[in-house]
Amino acid sequence: MKYLGRIVFAAAFAIMIAAGMGQAKAADSSSPIVIPTHNWSSQVVMAYIIGGIFESLGDNVEYVPADSQAVYEAIRNGDVTISHEVWQSTFGASFYNAMAKGGLIDAGTHEAETLEEMGVPNYVIENNLCPGLPNWEALANCQDVFSTADSDGKGRWLEGPQSWHGDLMPNRLNALGLGDKYVVKFAGGADAIWAELSSAKKEGRGIITFNWTPNFTDAEGFSFIEFPPYYDGCRIADGGDGKCGSPKGWLKKAANYKFPKTHPAAYSAFSKLSFTTTQIGQMAALVDVDKMSHQDAAKAWLAANEDVWKAFTE
Ligand code: TMO
Questions:
Q1: Which terminus of the chain, N or C, has less C-beta within 10 A?
Q2: 216 CB under 6 A from ligand 1?
Q3: Domains of the chain (ranges plus CATH)?
C-alpha cells in the first residue's frame, strides 16, 4: 500500500512537471516563417518539404521567390526567415558577408558534401572524346570537340545562370590560359542545362556544363573536371590569381537571428534538419526526372519519409 502510494505520488508529480514544462515553453509565433525559393529543383522541393514540416508543428509559412545571392541580405534584415541550401562554393561569400554585418546566424550543416563544378557526361570520358579528361589540362587540346554554333570556333563552357556565379568561370578560363580556346555561355536557367545535356547525349556529342552534387545527375553519374585544388582566397573575387577549381564544400542552413526566439519549435526542427546526398538527389529527381511539380514532389517526399523528418521535430 505504502509502495503503491509512492508510485501514484511519483506519477502525479511527473504529470505536474510535464504540464509545467509545457506551459513554460513559449509557443511559436503565428507570424509566417518566410522561406525563399530559388532556381534549381532540390532547393524548391526542399523549401516545400521544410514548410510542410513547420506546418506539422502548427506554424504558418510563406514562400517568396528570391535571388540566391541577395537572399542573405534579406535574411539579415528579416524579410526572409531562413535559407536551407547555402552552397559553399556559390554562396559562402554572401553568407559570411551578411553574418559579419549582423542579423544572420549559422543554423547548422547538412550531412551532404557538395561540389559545384564544370564537368562532362560520363560518355565523353568513356568514348575518349577528349583524351586526358577529367584532368583540366586536357581541355587545351580539344576546344573543337566542345564548340557549338554560337561559340565562334572556340569550345563552349555552358555555365548556369549568371546570378549564381558572376564572372567566376570566365575569370577561371583566363587565369588557366584557356581564354583563347573557350568561351563561357550562361544558361537562362537550370532546365536549359538539362535540355542541352540530353540532346548532346542523343547525338553522342561533347559537352562541358556547370553541374553540381547532390543533384539528380548523381544517379546516372557525371564526371567533374579536376582543376588545380581550391584553397581559401584563390579566386579573383577573393584576391587570388583564379587558378583553382571549386571547393569540395559544405551545405549549410542560415536563419534570421530572431527565429530561435519567435519560433522556438520550428527553429529547433530546422537546426536538427540534415539531408544526405541521396535524399537531396531524390528531391531534384522527383522534378527533373519524374516531372512532378515542386509542391507535389514535396508532398510525396514527406509522405514517404516520415521516419526521416519526424525525428527533426522531436
Ligand atoms: C547553387 N547550385 C546548386 C545551383 O550550384
A1: N
A2: no
A3: 29-113+249-313 (3.40.190.10), 115-238 (3.40.190.100)
